[in-house]
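haha ok so turns out i had the wrong file open the whole time. this is the CORRECT one, sorry everyone. sequence first:
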Amino acid sequence: MFFRFLGTTFVENRYLCKPYENRCTNSHDSTMTKGDIRAELELLKSLEGAAFGIKLKEIAARKEFRALPGEPFIYTVGMIQDDDYPSLLMAARKAVEHGYRVFMLPNPPGLKTPDFILERRGVYKLFDLKNISGKNIVLTRLNESAEQANRALLNMPAKYNTRLLAADIRNYFESNDKALEVLIFRRKYELSIFRRFAFSARFYTEFKKLYEK
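then structure:
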């Protein structure tokens, strides 16, 4: 269970940091990469555990990634700005507000990929983004994300039925044994739900307190 408000700061020695920033930017200029990023993304689907984490870091460190102009903590590989791009960028900006660096993954032809690699404090995670804009659709969207990654990022509207959301998250973990985390962005807060918390006896009560804070 994890819940935080904006404002946490940190410094990592491996990054190039400025004292007035609450995040650090790494330099890709000297990074040497081999192979095609499509092949790397395909390989990622077959990995688990430590090997998965190592490969995720390697992908994020590829020299193809460049910070977006005016967005020093959002990296892309020159992706085409398709219909989903505005919503992806909006969620990426929210992630930056919460202290993450965001690597927006490309979708090569014929290969479905998750949306983001999020990095904070040296921890890299792979997320599929779901922007929630209607009622009673969270479980459907979560199950869609399970096809792409074992972590889902929900960008929530200001109002949504709290108990229904909690039930959908628990059902998602029940029906997807590889699911690890549901990360929620709502207003200025983030809430991270892990499997153990979702199955706890007081999940609904505690979730309501956290989500409606």
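Confidence is low (pLDDT under 50) at residues 1-32.
again sry for the mixup
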